[in-house]
Design brief:
Blueprint lengths: L9 H13 L4 E4 L8 E4 L2 E4 L1 E6 L2 E10 L4 H15 L5 E10 L2
Parallel strand pairs: 5-6
Antiparallel strand pairs: 1-5, 2-3, 4-5
Length: 103
């Protein structure tokens, strides 16, 4: 579990959100979209599948690829909680599931 709070720069926020989301069991990865439009970029680096919409207050969008199990709702709640714990207080997290894989 991620317990440290993210930096408030876009790239640091994106890294913390990605790491927290991917730490949840059942999250296979993140999806940047067809042309990589859902990504955060910084000086030759990028975090695919995470778009930082705002840094004041922090607002992130994550596009998730997950494995199929009983219900997606509890897993999405786990992802949201993990990401919120990794970000500064008052952050907003939006999640989209773009693909579901067999377990």
């Amino acid at each position: 579990m991620i317990t440290t709070r993210a930096a408030t720069d876009r790239f640091g926020v994106a890294l913390a959100a990605r790491d927290a989301a991917c730490s949840v069991d059942g999250v296979v990865g993140l999806d940047a979209g067809l042309l990589g439009e859902i990504s955060t970029y910084a000086a030759g680096r990028k975090v695919p599948g995470v778009r930082v919409l705002s840094t004041e207050p922090i607002h992130v969008l994550l596009r998730l690829v997950v494995t199929y199990r009983d219900s997606l709702a509890p897993r999405l709640n786990q992802v949201r909680v993990a990401v919120l714990r990794a970000l500064p207080p008052g952050a907003r997290v939006d999640l989209q599931v773009t693909d579901v894989h067999a377990p």
